[in-house]
Amino acid sequence: MKISALRIPAALAACFAVVLAGAPGASAAPPSPAPGVATAPAATAPSATDPVATDGTAAAAATAAPLDPVDDAVATAGPGRTAAVDVLANDGLQDSAQVRLLLVDPSAPRDADELRTAAGLLRVITPGTAPAELPEGWLPPEHPVLALTPAEDAPAGAVEVGYAVRDATGAEARAVLTVTPEAPGDPSGEPETATVPTAEPATSPTAEPSAVPTADPGAEASAGSRAAAADPGADAAVPAEVRQALEAAAAREAARTGEPSAAMRPVAGGWEWPHANGVVLWSEGHGAHYVHVRAPLGQKWVAGGEVAGLGYPVNDEVCGMVGGGCRQTYSKGRSIYWSPATGAKLVHLKGAIGQKWGRYSWERGILGYPVGDQICGMAGGGCRQAFSNGRSIYWSPATGAKLVHLTGAIGQKWGRYSWERGALGYPAGDQICGMAGGGCRQTFSNGRSIYWSPATGARIVRLQSDVGRKWGWHGWERGALGYPTGDYVPQGRTAAYQKFRHGIVTWNASSGTRVHMFRGECQNLNNGRSVQPTRNAGRVSLTIAEGYGRSEATFVNCVRIGGSYVEEWRTSAYVGASGFKRPGVPSGHTQYLYSPQGSYSVTESFGVYNPGTALPYRPLNPNSRWGGRLGTLYNKYFESTGYTWPDENMWYFAQSGDYRLGVVINYNRPPDSPIVQGNGFAIFLHANKKPTAGCIALHEHEVARYMRTARPGDRIIMGVRADLFR
């Protein structure tokens, strides 16, 4: 192995190794420009024998360096984590982007771009490598690098791998990479924990001021402190290759740096050269690059702790990006992105949120530039970062990084439930659109999803509940029920329901799950087709004859759920033997056998036993009567030992079966109306299904079923179909 004499001190200090930890942001990756943004080739430092350039022509004047790659060493952090190895970083190449990097396979006649060794899989990654072939989370490098994926069973000792460097003329030189296992780092690859989280996002993340800052007192103080602390003779001991690299970097940025304000000097394992407007920094792994501390990117770097906080720059500033933006990447795994609209923000490109942003094409994609730094310390150890197009990326250990459109209908709905702190938790998947009817959905970690369509808005569904599973069995939004039109509504621990576009799904602990479609006669109560009023009663029972003069009828029990009526059950029925009177015409004396037509409340019941009703119940006895004679007792209950026609002997009819169970229909009586003498009396829902003297008759068990669910204020709408519905 050969090592340049000028490189011996740095190489010994690093033990020839760059530890490629798998912890978030740890990387030995080369500078990574944003996709699609062209960067100038890195200027090459002149050789030790060349005259030192002092102006912006230095790079152009430098002579081509011969191919003389230096042996490298790298330590891995364990299996399963692909890391970059920049073997060309310090080989003194004039333009490292123009050379070809190859792996030497001793068993093959030709060198290769990929080689499997005992230490793991090595691949050559170039600026032209297709995005789909890049390791996950990588940006295209500025010059060829090696991607190392350690083997599961890598040996404990070092493994040497040969590599070749070939220039455009075909000239070639070879060197050796020594791979040595090291103690593994944090395998999570997830965002590092930051400081105490700020307040939750508003519906739309707020963009920063658009004005581009031109000066920062903090940055100026930093530059001044460098000048004040400088040792005038400090650069006398600067290694020649470091001096050359620093001077070349300063020459590249000569229009912005200003005059040197201090001598070159060592700092934190590297070197810095302060200038009036910034600082040129050099590190073993990344070469020399300028940080413009009087501009937004440099000011953000200073605020982030400079070298101690963000590390050394790994590339020059890259500008000319979409929207007039710029970026610069630093050795501790973070980059600063700036645009006129958003200001300078930190992105952890190697963390889960940064990788997610990259999969959506960075600033060129639907998320745009970041509008805030990454915020961690949230519920469940989560993090988030907001971007300029109204979207944010949320991450938690349980869910990974997911995209939320906070200004969209689904994101706003999530916000009304307190974001990740609320009932829905973190997003468990990205928003999915292009569904039936132009709809979208997004799932969340606490077993709930939000579905949206243009016709129904954003609604919460509990897919793992009995109601949600029933909806799924009917085809979700593509099925007969369609999209939800209301949120999932629990009713204590024993019942729940949810409304959908074409029906309602209900669940009850005792009766299970049922689907009630919006159709039939009950739907007429919802859509305005009913002539008779419902008074928003909890239950409306329709008794419908198909024509006048007919006593056969259909009894339909409609229950109101979530503001809509749906059918619960139906059966056949009988009404007065002469059929219905016309709307508004009194039924008259029971001897004429007519039923009244209209909408009437029910408030009390009677019979020989109570089946379990919430209606006030009156047990009948031998003295029970109902007034049919004109006078103060007309159309009222009373008791008497005697009997005079046309009063009704209720006990007699109880023995014959009619009044074993009954419900009073409030026709021609309070609370619906005052009693009008002679307009009709004793209109009941009762047992013994056969034509009546004006009442509604069902089988006894059907009357019992009705009574068990009836409540005071429920209504019965009765009449001929043609006059009941528009």
Automatic annotation (TrEMBL):
Keywords: Signal. Residues 1-28 form the signal peptide. It holds the Pfam family YkuD. Residues 27-57, 179-238 are annotated as: Disordered. Residues 190-238 have a biased composition (Low complexity). It comes from the Bacteria. Residues 591-717 form the L,D-TPase catalytic domain. InterPro entries: LD_TPept_cat_dom, LGFP. This is L,D-transpeptidase family protein.
